[in-house]
Amino acid sequence: MAGAAAGRAGAGAGADAGAGAGADAGAAGAGGGVGATGAGADAGAPASGNGAAGAACDDVVFDHVCKSYGDNRVLRDVTFRLPGGGVTCLMAPSGSGKTTLFRVLLGLEDAESGSITGVRAGEVSMMFQEDRLCETLTPVENVALVLPPATRRADVQRLLERILPADCMDRPAMQLSGGMRRRVSLARAVAFPSKMIVLDEPFTGLDAATKRTVVDFLLAELRGRTLLVATHGDADAELLGGRRVSLADVSAA
């Protein structure tokens, strides 16, 4: 597992930046790049099918993954397969170990045994349960953190306006509602050029109509990428239309 974790360390770092955990450090530089224009600007547009997302995705295989914190065994021989390019809903209540499993996937935690194969460094983007936004930056600037410096503000704004009101684009994240913050965080994970997107309880704070809009946006922007969504709601899984995997069923008793 040590080799697998090391191989995914870059993926975890890239995903953490893509999802916002390390975004504060790069806020000034990445935010400053928004609004750049010129002949090369189109190449940096947040078309989430670009880059790694344009290539075929391998199956992602979790093979007997175990993780403990002291005497607390959090993951017990977790074993399942994610079809490449497919949508999978990981059905797991809070406290069941799903966030720990994601951190192992990203290389942010080392498993004691087992392996995860099928993803490489920089190929995973992550939306955590926490929004992890830069509070003084606008929605456009937060998403731009994971995009090339030449990306045009107008391109990022067009992406966001599909799931957010236009009048919130110039507000700092600290002034956004909880549901708006979740949508910015999700858009940032989607915009990052990845082969796999992992979303941890992405629909918290969204009403039914907004949730439907966000799901339509997410599925349209997958463009062949593998999607893993953690939820404990059957209605959310139904909306996404993917296969369901119970974390309890793929773990040892």
From TrEMBL:
<keyword id="KW-0067">ATP-binding</keyword>
<dbReference type="InterPro" id="IPR015854">
    <property type="entry name" value="ABC_transpr_LolD-like"/>
</dbReference>
<dbReference type="InterPro" id="IPR027417">
    <property type="entry name" value="P-loop_NTPase"/>
</dbReference>
<feature type="domain" description="ABC transporter">
    <location>
        <begin position="60"/>
        <end position="252"/>
    </location>
</feature>
<dbReference type="GO" id="GO:0005524">
    <property type="term" value="F:ATP binding"/>
</dbReference>
<dbReference type="GO" id="GO:0005886">
    <property type="term" value="C:plasma membrane"/>
</dbReference>
<dbReference type="GO" id="GO:0016887">
    <property type="term" value="F:ATP hydrolysis activity"/>
</dbReference>
<dbReference type="InterPro" id="IPR003439">
    <property type="entry name" value="ABC_transporter-like_ATP-bd"/>
</dbReference>
<protein>
    <submittedName>
        <fullName>ABC transporter</fullName>
    </submittedName>
</protein>
<dbReference type="GO" id="GO:0022857">
    <property type="term" value="F:transmembrane transporter activity"/>
</dbReference>
<dbReference type="Pfam" id="PF00005">
    <property type="entry name" value="ABC_tran"/>
</dbReference>
<dbReference type="InterPro" id="IPR017871">
    <property type="entry name" value="ABC_transporter-like_CS"/>
</dbReference>
<dbReference type="InterPro" id="IPR003593">
    <property type="entry name" value="AAA+_ATPase"/>
</dbReference>
<keyword id="KW-0547">Nucleotide-binding</keyword>
